[in-house]
Amino acid sequence: MKERLFRNKVELIVVIGVIVMLVFTGALLAYLQSHQRLGVPGVRVSGQDGRLVVKVELPERVLDYESEEIPQAPIVTNALPKDTSFGQRLYTAPDGFQILLNVVLMGMDRTSLHKPEFCLTGVGWRIEKSDRVTIRIYEPYPYDLPVARKIVTKQFNFNGQVVTQRGIYLYWYVCDGAISGDPTGLERMWLMTKELLLKGVLQRWAYVTCFAVCSPGAEDHTYERMKSFIASAVPLFQTTAGARIED
User: Fold this and answer.
1) Do the Cβ atoms of 179 and 77 come closer than 8 Å?
2) What is the pLDDT of residue 111?
3) Are residues 95 and 120 both part of a single domain?
4) Which of the residues 17, 62, 225, 237 has an alpha carbon 20 to 30 A from that of 96?
5) Does a structural domain hold residue 93?
6) Do both 60 and 11 map to the same domain?
7) What is the pLDDT of residue 29?
8) 242 inside domain
9) 136 and 173: one domain?
10) In the chain, how many domains are there?
11) Whether residue 85 is found in the same domain as residue 193
């Protein structure tokens, strides 16, 4: 009898504890939502004037690449929150090599930052390999940009023959004062939570992607060209730099 009463008391304490935690969590979230302010982007934008939706300004020319602005596809703009901002340009080198640079900038809704697996597999690419790399940036000072990399494959019919293409997909996340190349998103979520709790600021993260297509066997050469492009392009549109590298 005593054992049963003790067990009931323990269960009651646990239930009360859970209820208190839920109430506290709800109150904390309500407080944060009512007091939070949106942070500054870590990329160059135009058309702010107090508006959430802005234009991410990407450079027209990088090295010897010329570019054209590419509108976002309706399937993208319709799927993401209405306060999402974009910037996208296709860069073409004199020999015809092309790189697509794209930036998705969140507003108050954090679901703008989606996983690349959905986009890549949704348009027919199969992910063969995923890893993490760093790219040395030299302006405004030397630092290593953390980047997630995916090697992807697609097959299609051309004149009755099956043709295989490879793709190099590089991406990272940046906001005012922070950069993350963590593909899981855990680092970014931790930084966002810490800033929200300590300062009441919702970091405004941008999802930056760089994509190029090549023939099988040309992956390493393509990646080296992309590294050179990114090293020159990033200082032209990204306002946040990483930790200084002392040579």
Assistant:
1) no
2) 85
3) yes
4) 237
5) yes
6) no
7) 46
8) no
9) yes
10) 2
11) yes
Range of the domain at 22: 1-35
Q: The pTM is what? A: 0.84
Half-sphere exposure of 15 (CA within 13 A, CB side): 6
- 19 and 131 in a single domain? The answer is no
**Tokens matching residue 4:** 């049963």
Report H helices in 36-175: 74-79, 116-122
DSSP-based three-state secondary structure for 152: strand
- Going by C-alpha positions, the residue among 180, 10, 167 that lies closest to residue 100 is 167
Residue type, 124: G
Q: How far is CA 28 from CA 22, 70, 187, in A?
A: 10, 41, 22
Q: Are residues 17 and 56 in the same domain?
A: no
Residues β-bridged to residue 156: 163
In a shared domain, residues 224 and 119: yes
- For residue range 135-164, list pLDDT tens digits in order: 999 999 999 999 999 999 998 887 778 889
Q: In this structure, what is the dihedral angle of CA atoms 9, 13, 19, 24, given to the nearest 10 degrees?
A: 160
Within a domain: residue 247?
no
pLDDT < 50 stretches in the chain? 25-27, 29-30
In a domain, 107, yes or no: yes
Q: What are phi and psi of 125, to 5 degrees?
A: -85, 140
Specify whether 22 is located in the same domain as 83: no
pLDDT tens digit string along 65-82? 999 999 998 888 888 999
Q: How far apart are CA 63 and CA 50, in angstroms?
A: 34
Angle at 183 between CA 178 and CA 189, to 5 degrees: 50
The per-residue pLDDT for 25 is: 46
Q: Residue 64 to residues 67, 87, 94, 96, 151: CA-CA distances in angstroms?
A: 10, 20, 7, 11, 25
